[in-house]
Write a structure and sequence with these properties.
There is one protein chain. By secondary structure, this protein is of the alpha+beta class. It has a seven-stranded mixed sheet with strand order 3-5-1-12-9-10-11, sandwiched between helices. It is globular. 57% of the residues are buried.
Amino acid sequence: MLNHRTTQSERDRTRWVTGAGRYTADIAVPDALSATFLRSPHAHAEIVSIDIGTALAMPGVIAVLTGADCAEAGFGNFRGLMRYGADGPHPLIVPFRPVLAHERVRHVGEAVACVVATSESAALDASEAIAVTYRDLPAVIGIDAAGKADAPAIHPPAPGNLAFAHQAGDAAAVRAAFDAAASVVATAFGLPRLAPTTMELRGIIARYDEAAGIYHLITPHQGINEIRADLAAVLNVPEARISIELPDVGGGFGARSPAYPEHAALLLAARRTGRAVRWVASRSEAFMTDYYGRSTRLAGRLALDGAGRFTGLEITYETDLGAYITTVGAFVNVHNPLMSGGGTYGIPAIALNFRQYFTNTGPIGPYRGAGRPDVALLIERLVDRAATALGADQLELRRLNAIPRAAFPYRTVLGSTYDSADYSALIDAVHRASAWDGFAARRKEAQARGRLRGRGVALFTEIAGGGAATRDEARVVLGVTGGRAIARIETVTGGSGQSQAETYAFILAERLGMDPADIELAASPAHSTLNGGGSIGSRSTLSAGSAIADAGDQLRRHLLAAAGLRANAPPAELVMAEGAICRSDGSVVLTLAEAIASTDAPLDVVGAVPVSSSFPSGCHVAEVEIDPQTGLAVLVSYFAIDDSGVVLNPIVAEGQIHGGIVQGLGEVFGEAMQYDETGQILTGSFMDYTMPRAADVPNFVTEDRPTASPNNPLGVKGLGEAGTTGALAAAANAFADALAMVGAELPAFPCTAHSIWRSIRAAASG
């Protein structure tokens, strides 16, 4: 039945691959004005003066907005959320972030003025005619520079450029564990800033309805409730006065979750001009201003007893936040590491020390994994170091310390509760799939070819779900068209490639006996008032999907009760399948269309579930080969065994794992935003910023070893970020293993051919 007719998601796939997608840049708006932004060429400078007179007088120019106009409009601050450390010595500082720079610029690319004209070319010409006088200030680039005693203050409310500090866990218990340890291993590394590099560039179409006082926005986003709340805070208006339409989204990865200054600037421009205003970023603007990922530095120590069991873990986790706070950019680098700070291991004593800094670089936000891959990498590097020190098999040391299946649900010493897992089963499966015992022969064969072959493993878990809302809701409306039962699902999540329409249709179809092709998804409609979070944090199916299931169950009970009266039979004796309500003997009482048409009340229900979390896990193995003469590394195999709970849509699940793996590998092999000492971006295009290509990755071997989550009615777990979390650690361990053959150390990330070559040369020279 599922393949009876073409589903909405299948129609979407056809649109996307044939160029018929409806992205912001594809939407025609007659008589719309065009906007461009004049951006700061300095990382840190005072704005002495701005002269817009010449620009305003140029042909086609309608308006030029500056920071003074935003101040006059009474704009408020962007939100910065944090639920930790409020009562501590260094709670999160959220300095004012102007929509258009006012008095000072704090990173290259910060918007200084917005030009609105009758054409894009006229706006670009006028932006070049704006005369800005700057007074250079010293730039603060990197965590070390930010923390120096004589570092310039980026924000006066944040002495020493310290934005946040927090300690978690039991430091005394950790000290005792290290004092009693038979052995201790340590590691440290930094993860560079990553550009989200979505295929679709940010685009905005803004309108203002003067009569109704409503701001209208068309822009890609990952859920209406977060971006609407962000803009309400900046515009200083109730959320009900903001309407946001969701077009197709050509990539999210977290960067499309929060509001940006450009959103507010264009809404102000639309209000001032009384006309629609549109803007689409250039790729250079995206590299300068899309919210970045990672930009973290971690150090850790692991204590072991004489039997090789982990007894204590100490983590220092530092974050370079950039020039400003984004909605959850600071929060995810505390919450997510805390929730899985012990990894898959039953470590009895853990302590974490968090510090976050302002620098003169673009702000960071949530990016695929958002703190989870960082801490998983730290833990898995420590475990590999411990295996080396003990002369133990990497998988067997993990098995020895992994939380046993019988212990779930498992309460960690950091306060999170893992829902379900069978880590030993994951280890067994990857041992078989990767031909673990044959690695020595593969390494020997590679050596004969002059190559260093390394193997890395990652046994990981991560938090998925949760969010700021207390519950998730979904509306389902049933109707009849052309004699067929149809359904419309409304959610506040917006997809960016996860095939939500198909998965959600499967969930509802199973409950109502419908053809999924007769079910349509309205994702994050502009005027939705439903509760819930967006398509972030691997929460879509777990949360919105569970709410859809609840709505389907409500409708099922209603229709079965009505059919029971007709059949003179208890509803429990009736079944819904193949578009009909039948008796237990298979005889039809009513078609589903007849049942819907015969009911008096409209079949319009809202399903709801409390917000919950899950803890997907996996065991990934990567093998790489390095040419020691050039440093060139090649990924030769990758095996991913994942526990994503009940898998509702296997094809989509596999695609999500694959995509996540590629993004994790990209971090190891080449991706990094680079700056010079003045804060100028050195990797501002695809000529300089290394993206993974299809030729860089082999065919992945993926398998499911699910354990159902008890935290939601579907038994599902998040899976959108598991691939990234596993890949970063597995690939890094593989590089370290290969380099250890010649006594070389793992270089700083990313592990480029040049950095690997230098590490090998350093080892050779002693």
